[in-house]
Amino acid sequence: MKFIKSLCAASLTALSVAQAGCVMSGGNYYCSETDAVVFSNVGYSGSYKDVTSMDESSGVCLQDTVSFSGSLAPLDEELSVHFRGPLRLLQFGVYYPSGGSSLGKRDNQVQEEPCEETVQSHKHKREVAVEYVQVTSTVYVNNKGQPVTSSVAQQEAPGNPATDVVSSYTFVNTIVTPSTSATPSTGTSATTVLTGGRAGSSSPEPASSSSIVSLSSSTKSSASASSTSGSSTSGAWVRSSYFQPGSASNCVFMNHQGGSAGSGVWSAAFGNSICYASSDGVSGASSAQALGDVTIKSGQEYMIFSGSQCSGNDCGYYRKNIPAYHGFGGENKIFVFEFSMPYDTAGSGYNQDMPAIWFLNAKIPRTLQYGKSECSCWKTGCGEFDLFEILSPGSDKLITHVHDGQGSDGTSTGGGGTQDYFQRPTSGTMKAAVIFNGSDKTIHIVKVDDDFDAQLSSDVVNSWLQKSGSTAALA
């Protein structure tokens, strides 16, 4: 989402979406509706180019190499949370494990401050009975992203294009059988592995036979939701940040109107910086304000940082004279959302009727989210995670995708995703949780019905982790 749709994409070695029962719509492939997506094998060791200075007069930015390593790296670094309209946000929260959680020590010790205002929680429960039948297959791919046979893969011939740098991926193909009370789209979900990049869309495009891997296996097994996930927690999760319209605790709303209303800066070289957002989400403000109960229009954006202000060098380099705040860091954390994305057909501008919610490495907006590529770490793969993204105007299918250097040459064109989709909540609201689990290198995105209380019990979190759905294995 760093450069909206034009650069938030990658080419991939994937299941044949045609054989998986997927359909093309608006230039993108979609497979089955899902209530959960699990990213596995997240995190690797690598590096990116971090900004070390920005000259407002010349427009020159200098960078230096930063190395990282970890079970969810670089997405375990501090993240900012971004929203694009048409969108209405009803709840947002961040949780960290208490001392008793099996996921490890709490990554952020900031405690939530008492809210001065509360609003009635929203409940939108629906019962869906789904049977999951999984088909697995191991696929071998060479360094050109071309499928090879297992016998060829076992040959060791350095320098031979047919066998050089062979990777092995296990695909899980989930066939969804809804009950009569549920009406998700039929078809077969696709697990995808990305190995390179293209500009355009984060959905796979038809490719030549040399870059498409078809899933074919006679190995079938019925799997319950509880048996498809190895993730679990013990102990409560404590809420550190929370928002409801008109009330924000330990979280700060910002947008890109710097220099216009008493916070942030503007220059001819870099344009507007980030600044405090007013309660309407789209105007600038001189101090932090809680977002109101507003629906922002197409193309309008705001973002959320934690309530902890940067001090000294603890946030790294950031643009001078901006309100600089920490993001949400750590490899064990939970984000929760309640939102709606109504249709917006009134205009026809850029990103018309294409709402989205996504994470960025918090260094990106603190330097330059939109502009020269050398003035942020985005292009070199410091991390973006699209949670719920509409890829074409008026679509009702929300796609999720990771963009970082994993599985590529160390740029933002790596990562992975799935062509299964969440149904866009155009009327009513959708509740969702995003669970970062460093212990098994997974990130879960799940639709939920539970209330977002000050603490989440291990039973509640485990029920979210055990939801089965689409899978996306990063290389």
TrEMBL record:
Q: Kindly list the GO molecular function terms attached to this UniProt entry.
A: glucan endo-1,3-beta-D-glucosidase activity
User: Could you tell me what reaction this enzyme catalyses?
Assistant: Hydrolysis of (1->3)-beta-D-glucosidic linkages in (1->3)-beta-D-glucans
What general EC class does the enzyme of this chain belong to? hydrolase
The top of its lineage is:
Eukaryota, Fungi, Dikarya, Ascomycota, Saccharomycotina
> E.C. number, please?
3.2.1.39
Cell wall protein YJL171C/Tos1 N-terminal domain residues are 35-97
Instruction: Kindly give the InterPro entries that the UniProt entry links to this protein.
Output: YJL171C/Tos1_C, YJL171C/Tos1_N
Q: Where is the signal peptide?
A: 1-20
Q: Name one GO cellular component term.
A: fungal-type cell wall
Q: Which family does it belong to?
A: Belongs to the PGA52 family.
The answer, when asked if Cell wall biogenesis/degradation is one of the entry's keywords, is yes
Q: What is this protein called?
A: glucan endo-1,3-beta-D-glucosidase
Residue ranges of domain Cell wall protein YJL171C/Tos1 C-terminal in the record: 236-464
Q: Where is this region: Disordered?
A: 177-213
**Its Gene Ontology biological processes?**
cell wall organization
Q: Which UniProt keywords apply?
A: Cell wall biogenesis/degradation, Glycosidase, Hydrolase, Signal
